[in-house]
Design a protein that fits this description.
- The protein is an alpha+beta fold and 141 residues long.
- The chain folds into 2 domains: 82 residues, Winged helix-like DNA-binding domain superfamily/Winged helix DNA-binding domain (Arc Repressor Mutant, subunit A); 50 residues, Dna Ligase, domain 1 (2-Layer Sandwich), CATH 3.30.1490.
- The chain is 44% helix and 13% strand.
- The strands form 2 sheets. It has a 3-stranded mixed beta sheet with strand order 4-3-5, with no helix packed on it. Strands 1-2 form a two-stranded antiparallel ribbon.
- The protein is globular, with a radius of gyration of 17 Å.
- The relative contact order is 0.12.
- The mean pLDDT is 89.
- It holds the Pfam family FUR.
- This is Fur family peroxide stress response transcriptional regulator.
- Keywords: DNA-binding, Repressor, Transcription, Transcription regulation, Zinc.
Length: 141
């Protein structure tokens, strides 16, 4: 188990959350997956391991992880939410054909936030930036 997963589980325990095997599996899958999966994809991946687990269990746990600040819900044009366990500041590039999402970071965008605060007087609490195009695989095929 990665240190990141262990740290997250410890944080949950300190907040009084019971760590069930399903919770552990959902969190581990999310933290190890770089694909920004949907709840249904998480369910399908874990269902062989947990045949009695329902999609509702996955949704309820994801909601709890979001409220705990450990997971971010990504809503894009395709109406199905995707989930990201990387809650650090980063941006996304999304394939218009297959829906693949990749993370990227560009520190200069912090300057844009600072400039926006300076010129408007707003306190910027978050930025959502998405770039759309075709991933390498879709460009080739």
């Amino acid at each position: 188990m990665t240190t990141r997963v262990q740290d997250a589980l410890e944080q949950l325990k300190m907040n009084g959350v019971r760590i069930t095997p399903q919770r552990h599996a959902i969190l581990s899958y999310l933290m190890e997956s770089m694909t920004h999966p949907t709840a249904d994809e998480i369910y399908r991946a874990l269902e062989p391991q947990f045949p009695s687990m329902s999609v509702a269990t996955v949704y309820n746990n994801l909601k709890m992880f979001i409220e705990a600040g450990m997971v971010r819900e990504l809503t894009y044009g395709d109406s199905s939410s995707r989930f990201d366990a990387n809650v650090s500041k980063h941006y996304h590039v999304i394939c218009e054909r297959c829906g693949k999402i990749e993370d990227f970071d560009y520190p200069s965008l912090t300057e844009v936030e600072n400039k926006a605060e300076e010129s408007t007087g707003f306190q910027v609490n978050g930025v959502r930036m998405e770039l759309y195009g075709l991933c390498q695989n879709c460009r080739v095929h």
